[in-house]
Amino acid sequence: MPELTAPARAFVLRGWARLPLALACGALMGLSAAPYDLWYVGFLGLVGAFALFRVAPRGLRAVGTGWMVGLGYFGLSMSWIVEPFMVDAATTGWMAPFGLLGLAGGLALFWALAFWGAGHAKHRALPALVVTWTAAELARAYVLTGFPWGLVGYLWLPVPPVQWVSLVGPHGLTFLTFATAALFAAEAPRRDMRLLPPVLGVTALLALFGGGQALIPPLQDLDGRPIVRLVQPNAPQHLKWQRDMVPVYYRRQVDFTAAPMKDGDSRPDLVIWPETALPTLLHRSANELGEISHAAGAAQVVVGLQRENLGNWYNSLVLMGPEGDVRQVYDKYHLVPFGEYMPAKAVFARWNIAGLAARAEGGYSAGPGPELLNLGPLGVALPLICYEAVFPQDVHRAPARPDMLMQITNDAWFGAFSGPYQHLEQARIRAIEQGLPMLRAANTGVSAVIDGAGRVLAALPLNEAGYIDAPLPPPLRVTLYSRTGDLPVLIMLFLFAGLLLRHHRIALRREND
Questions:
Q1: Sheet hosting strand 326-331, strand order edge to edge
Q2: Residue 390, Cα to own-chain centre: how many angstroms?
Q3: What number is the average pLDDT over the span 148-175?
Q4: For residues 222 and 59, which has the higher predicted lDDT (pLDDT)?
Q5: What is the rounded average pLDDT of the residues 275-283?
Q6: Is the model's pLDDT at 161 over the cut of 90?
Q7: Is 323 annotated in the active site?
Q8: Which residues pair with 330 in a beta bridge?
Q9: Distance CA 113, CA 132 (A)
Q10: Residue 497: is its pLDDT beyond 90?
Q11: In this predicted structure, what is the pLDDT of residue 343?
C-alpha cells in the first residue's frame, strides 16, 4: 500500500470522505458472493478496508469505518433478505426495507466493535484488527443463535484457497484471509523497506493458492456406486400452499419418484424430496406416504414435511423403508428467528407481526438436536433442514462421523437472484470441511450432488422442475477440521491477543521511560 501524502491522509480522515469510501470497500467485498463470485474484487475491497483503518484507527472514527464497511458488505451480499417479505407483499412487504437495514446494520455492529477494539492497540493496530475482526466473525456464528452466512473466508470458494477449510475451518480461513489483506495495507517499518509488506502479501497469497491446490483431492471412481434421485418440484412460495396448486406439486413429485431411469430397468436406491414437500401433517399422511413408497419401489425415501405433537409444530423429515414404513423422524432444531419462530412473540404480537413461515402461534418448536439417519447399505447420513447447513458447528456436533451430509431445503423463500446460490455455496463448503458428500434436494433449486471436495457432480438449475439421478460419492479422508472444530482457531486467537497485549505493555513502558 503506497504511503499517503499529507493532503490525501487529511482527506481520508474527514468523516464525509472516509465513510463513503468504507461503504464502497464493503460493497466491493460483497461482490465476492454469489451470483457475482468476483473473489479478486472482494479481496481488493478487504485490502481497502484495512487501509482505511490504518489512517483512522482510533475511537469513533474506527467504529464508523467498521460499521460502514459492514453495511456495504452485508447490504449488498444479503440483499436477498427482502425476498421472504415479498412472498405475501400485501401483508409483509412493508417490512422488507426494515429487514434489510436491520440485518445489514445489525451484523455490521460486530465489525464496528472489532474496529473499535483494534483501535486500542496503539502500536500494532493492523495485527490487532486481524484478531478482533476474526473474533467478530466467530462471534456472529454463535451470538443470539448465530448467523454465519457469508463469512469473509468464503470469498475463496471459486478458487483453490477454499480447500483450507478442511484443515482450519471457515474461521481459520477467515483469519488467514484477514492476515493476507493486512499485509498489503501495512506500512513499512522504514522507508527503505517499502516493498516488504506487498512482497509478504504476495507470498501469503501464493501460499494460500499453492496449499489449497495441494489439498484438492482427485476425482473418485463412482462406478457401481448406489444411485440417488433428488426430486425438485419447483413450487413457487406464493403458490406452494394454494388449495388448487397443492395437488399439482404433490402429483409432480410422485411422478418424478416413479419415473424410470435412463436404462429403463434400474431404479434408484434412495429418493429425496425437499423441505415441506408433503402437503399434509405426518399423522395424517398414511395414504400419501404409502403412495410415495409404492412409486419409489425398492428405494428408501426421505420426505420433508411438517408434524404436530401435543400442540407443538415441527419442521421435519421422515425416512421410509421400501415397504412404506416410517423408520426415522428428524425434527429441525436450529430454527430461523423471525422466520420459523418469533423471539419475544408476545411483544411483536401487539403490532400483529408474526413469523414468515409460522404454522402455529409463535412458529415451530425446535427438535432435540443433531441425529443420524441409518440408510442401511448406503451408510449413515446427517440430515440438515435448510438453514442448518449454514452452521459449521452444527455439522461438527454430529453424534458420530456420517458417510454423507443430506440437506433438504425450500429456497423459494430466497428469490431467484443471489440467495439460493449463496445457500448452495455454503453447502459445498460444509462438504469440504468434513470431506463428505452432500446430497441437496431443494424445492426450486439448486438441487445437487456434491462430493467431499465441494465439486458439484450433478445439479438441476434454479426454477426448473425435474429430478436427477446420480451416483452417491463415497466419503473422502477424515479432515483435520472434522476432528478439531473451531478449537484451534480459538487457541490461535488467544495466543495472538496475548502477544499483542504483551507488545502493547512493553511499548507503553518504553514511552513512560
A1: 326-331, 312-320, 300-309, 270-272, 227-232, 466-471
A2: 4
A3: 97
A4: 222
A5: 94
A6: yes
A7: no
A8: 317
A9: 8
A10: no
A11: 66
Percent of the chain at pLDDT above 90? 74
Total-model pTM: 0.92
Cβ pair 77, 422 in contact under 8 A: yes
With bands split at pLDDT 50, 70 and 90, how would you rate the model's confidence at 1? very low
**CA dist 488 to 103, 398, 482, 493, Å?**
29, 19, 12, 9
Cα angle 103-104-110, degrees, rounded to a multiple of 5: 95
> Given 332, 340, 388, 425, which residue is catalytic?
332
- pLDDT tens readout for residues 350-409: 544 555 555 545 589 999 999 999 999 999 999 999 999 999 999 988 999 999 999 999
Whether the bond between 446 and the residue before it is cis, its omega within 30 degrees of 0, is yes
Among 25, 83, 240, 386, which one carries the catalytic annotation?
Answer: 386
Q: Is 275 part of the annotated catalytic residue set?
A: yes
For residue 164, which of 207, 124, 120 has the smallest C-alpha distance? 207
Per-residue HEC secondary structure of 34-99 comes to CCCCCHHHHHHHHHHHHHHHHHCCCHHHHHHHHHHHHHHHHHHHCHHHHHHHHCCHHHHHHHHHHH
**Is 361 in the active site?**
no
What is residue 3's predicted lDDT score, i.e. its pLDDT?
53
Give the CA distances from residue 243 to residues 10, 240, 315, 316, in Å, rounded to whole numbers and listed in that order: 64, 9, 20, 22
The β-bridge partners of 312 are 309
Contacts 24+ apart (CB under 8 A), 112-115: 112/63, 112/64, 112/66, 112/67, 112/70, 113/63, 113/66, 114/66, 115/53, 115/62, 115/63, 115/65, 115/66, 115/67, 115/69
Q: Is 120 exposed, middle or buried (0-12, 13-18, 19+ CB in 10 A)?
A: middle
Residue 165 predicted with pLDDT over 70: yes
- Catalytic residue chosen out of the listed positions 83, 137, 240, 275: 275
CA 216/CA 258 separation, integer angstroms: 37
Residue 446: partners with Cβ closer than 8 Å, 6 or more residues away: 411, 420, 421, 424, 440, 459, 460, 461, 462
Rounded distance, CA 200 to CA 204, Å? 6
For the sheet containing 380-385, what is the strand order?
373-374, 380-385, 404-409, 438-442, 448-450, 456-459
